[in-house]
Amino acid sequence: MSNVSRPRAIRLVAQREVMERGRSKGYVLSLAFTVVLMLVGFILPAMLVNQQSTLHLALVGATPEGLEASLVATSGSLGVALDLSSVPDRAAAETAVRAGDLDAALIVPVDLSSAGQLIVLEDAGGALQAVVNQAVIGLRAGPAASEAPVVNALKPPTAESTTAIIFANAGIILMFIGIFSYGSWVLTGVVEEKQSRVVEVVLSTVRPRDLLMGKVLGIGLLALAQLVVLVAVGIGFATATGRVVLPPTTLGAVVQLLTWFILGFALYSTAMGFLGSLASRTEEASTASMPVTLTATTAYILSIVVVTQDPSGLLAHIMTFFPPAAPMVVPLRVALDAIEPWEIVVSIGLMLAAIWALFVVGARVYSGAVLQTGSRMRLRDAWRARS
Amino acid sequence: MLEIRGLTKRYGAVTALDDATFTAHRGRLVGFLGPNGAGKTTAMRCVFGLAAPDAGDVRWDGTVVDARARLQFGYMPEQRGLYPRMRVADQLSYFGQHHGLSGREARARGMAWLERFGLTDRARSKLEDLSHGNQQRVQLATALVHDPELLVLDEPFSGLDPIGIATMAEVLRERARAGVGVVFSSHQLDLVEEVCEDVVIISRGHVVAEGGIDELKARSGRRHLDVEVMGTGGGWLDGQNHLTVLERDGDRVRLLVDDTVALDALLAAARAAGEVRRFSYEPPKLSELFMEAVTAEQPIRREGAA
Q1: CA–CA gap between residue B49 and residue B44 (Å, rounded)
Q2: pLDDT at residue A376 above 80?
Q3: Which end of chain B is more exposed for a tag (fewer CB within 10 A), N or C?
């Protein structure tokens, strides 16, 4: 009979978690529920807001033949209400846009030599850009046809109001919820194994650290799958309808979000797993994991309140290098463009070191505590009871 | 061959194992006996690396047991445990793979054991939906699925009905005949006497008796006498020295006799009292050997005084 290598043992444990939990009603339902929640909470409002308001667009000066007809046709096919007018020159257009009488003004050369300019106040909404781009591109047949009018914002958006921030904030909320709902699976999973005594059978062949690692890995994969589905559905929905325009930093933001989700989950669920081993019944699990919950909540509130206001401040810098806070602080500072690349690298390094340390310490506490029955154990006793 | 040598394990002020030494041979059923708290479970946990001994070691076929060697062992802990909501067949396959079987092999062997226990139709059921007895069978199948060279079972018979006991005993005998080492703990001494060849008796962390059951009986200096003298109610025993009355049931008495007592003198005394229906010498029962071994170790000690 062959030897069971440690990676294989970890894989077997992870695989069991994925198979048993992945096909459970709870997982499938929570996946469906969060997708619906996201559609209702983020995507639909964005669509409805754009849909209900009438777009006030003016054409500036002389315009190419057919532009007006093309705009009307495009807005009709996209279901956008369009109120089309004309202004004599650029100065008049800017005045009207600043005054709020117009949403935007469009300048296109009569000879269609370029795609022209779109004058807006802060930024062009998704519906506006969709209508204008499609109309202008459709009119300008030829090699340069895919070029869209240049957006010219009269009042360039400040950092706080960019979509990137909204994405980062939404990402942090998702991350916080994800870490906690799946972290609590690790927690209750550990307690259930202890309570049902199956852990004694498992540990007769599997090392405690490998069992903990496999569990975190398996449940982490399920959590990651849910996050990927959410992000994919969101982005897919947005681009398919063409109503929500994604900022160019979307890909980077998604990569940041996933990276920090993985790191944050590994850190927090390991902590929850080993503290869970101190509980003897599922009812005690939440008490046992209280220190983790408090730390995470504090880090979350501080990043929302303090770091958003002052992303380059002292506290923001400190929290960047404090592993429990880093998963929330770093993506936020990245979105606000207030972080140096080396800080990200160092922060990730510290995070990995903290996760490893937690596995080593956690596994010792875990192996000391998980075979003890009776009342809840204290951390110090579990550390000493290591067998 | 499983060798436990000088095993000592302390939990704080409590000494669970105190220089325990014994051997369990392949192909023989070994009953591992002792009062509650004697150290049986701790010893078993040491075999599986679930408790690290403070001194001594555990050897299998002459080599100190490590994680790799343990893959060839099968374990059934006293407090049963499997995943309640996991399907029976998946469960067996999972533990089989942890012992080094491929996925396919583990599934096939698991199914073979389920068939053996008449549980084929429950393969896809969740464990928690099975009856207590069937859950116990699945637990045994879990210990057997990888065809281990050594089986260590903590109280495998407890909670089983007579049919379950018969199946369990049959499987254990069969494994032993196949050359597997089988060690199990039990408080059902009559059952152990019937099933086992060897016993190890542990008391207060120390091994107090070890060997073949027949050999231990023969070695015991005490003799048991069953005597029935009609119409005496056992009154003829008054004035007899060097014997202890173990049981008294009407005219029938069961005696423990020192080997210094001359049996023919005793028979003469019985005859003088009345009609002797029975006068039979019997080897001690295992339960008597057990009591003797355990009480010799801790003479007249009140419960909980430790």
Answers
A1: 9
A2: no
A3: C
- What DSSP element (H or E) covers B192? helix B189-195
CATH class of A53-157: alpha beta
Among B80, B83, B99, the residue with its CB nearest the CB of A205 is B99
Angle at B29 between CA B23 and CA B31, to 5 degrees: 70
Listed by start position, the domains of chain A span 6-44+161-384, 53-157
b/e per residue, A195-230, with b = 16+ CB within 10 A?
A: bbbbbbbbbbbbbbbbbbbbbbbbbbbbbbebbeeb
Record: contact A1-B71, CB cut-off 8 A: yes
Q: Which pLDDT score is estimated for A50?
A: 52
Residues 6+ apart with CB under 8 A from A188: A276, A282, A285
Between CA A275 and CA A48 the distance in angstroms is 46
The model's pTM is 0.75
Inter-chain residue contact A20 with B142, CB threshold 8 Å: no
pLDDT digits (tens, 9 = 90+) for A60-102: 888 888 888 888 888 887 777 888 888 888 888 888 888 888 8
Q: Which helix (H) or strand (E) holds A211?
A: helix A208-241
Structure tokens belonging to residue A41: 């909470």
CB contact under 8 A, B77 and A197: yes
Which residues in chain B touch residue A200, judged by CB atoms under 8 angstroms apart?
50, 75, 77, 79, 81
How many other C-beta atoms lie within 10 A of the C-beta of residue B166? 11
Domain map (residue ranges) of chain B? 2-217, 221-282
- What class is the B2-217 domain? alpha beta
Residue of B80 and B215 predicted with greater confidence: B215
Structure tokens at B124: 């896809």
d(CA A207, CA B65): 15
> Is 60 exceeded by the pLDDT of residue A158?
no
Dist. CA A368–CA B254, nearest whole Å: 50
CA distance B48 to chain A (A): 5
Q: List all residues of chain A from 182 to 241 with a beta carbon under 8 Å from chain B.
A: 193, 196-207
**Which fold, B221-282?**
Alpha-Beta Plaits (3.30.70)
**Residue A360 CA, distance from chain mean position:** 29
Q: Identify whether the C-beta of residue B78 lies closer than 8 Å to the C-beta of residue B155.
A: yes
Dump pLDDT digits (tens) for A262-311.
999 999 999 998 888 888 777 788 888 888 889 988 888 888 888 777 88
Q: Which residues in chain B are contacts of A373 at CB distance < 8 A?
A: 79
For A87-138, the DSSP string reads: ESSHHHHHHHHHHTS-SEEEE--TT-SS--EEEESS---HHHHHHHHHHHHH
Handedness of CA B100, B105, B107, B111 (dihedral sign): negative
Across-strand partners of B244? B256
User: In terms of pLDDT, which residue wins out, B6 or A110?
Assistant: B6
Calpha distance A371→A386 (Å, rounded):
10
**Residue B104 near chain A (CB below 8 Å):** no
Q: Of A156, A89, A99, A96, whose CA–CA distance to A122 is shortest?
A: A156
Q: Which of B70, B75, B90 sits opposite A201 (nearest CB)?
A: B75
Task: Provide ipTM, 2 decimals.
Answer: 0.80
Task: Judge whether B40 and B185 are in contact, CB under 8 Å.
Answer: yes
Give CA–CA dist A31/A355, Å, rounded. 27
